[in-house]
Design goal:
Length: 171
């Protein structure tokens, strides 16, 4: 299969939210993915705090996967605080926020490809610290991140008690 990787535009935000909502129920074990509320995701995209990336299967034009980044600024949710980054580095943190791959398209390295596209844009925008959270026992997401140069900085509870590894990549 061939895929087109592209940045989402505002007219596509609803299909991103739909894919997250509909696909997160297929992920096992459940604690591997903590979906944000639909309203939060839509608001972050609409307000420009998040950027959505999409993988579209070329032949069918089906949405195969989405990936979101978030610019947390100095909000308390900035993962830079979790790993002890200094205040002068916090504005340069971007979150590699959420990835969802439709079950029909898993196994095509879409998470990695979407992350690479986002990293390129984030570097061009001046971000220097890319942070992500991954369940420590999720080999798929963990291997993707580690193969891209992310390092585990800390393991702690996040998102209301979910165990997560906090990973960082300097760009």
């Amino acid at each position: 299969m061939e895929f087109i990787i592209q940045k989402a535009n505002k007219s596509q935000y609803d299909i991103i939210v739909d894919l997250i909502r509909n696909t997160c129920n297929t992920i096992e074990p459940k604690e591997w993915f903590a979906a944000d509320a639909d309203e939060y995701t839509h608001r972050m995209l609409t307000e420009g705090k998040a950027t959505g990336y999409m993988a579209i299967e070329s032949e069918s034009q089906n949405l195969a996967a989405i990936f979101m980044t978030l610019a947390p600024g100095k909000s308390p949710e900035n993962l830079g605080y979790d790993i002890g980054l200094s205040d002068d580095k916090i504005p340069y943190v971007a979150h590699m926020e959420s990835v969802v791959v439709h079950p029909d398209y898993r196994g095509h390295k879409l998470q990695r490809r979407l992350m690479e596209a986002a990293e390129k844009d984030l570097k061009a925008a001046g971000y220097r610290y890319l942070l992500a959270t991954i369940h420590p026992e999720n080999p798929y997401s963990m291997n993707n991140a580690l193969s891209l140069g992310y390092q585990v900085m800390r393991v702690c509870e996040k998102y209301g008690g979910y165990l997560r590894a906090v990973l960082m990549k300097k760009i």
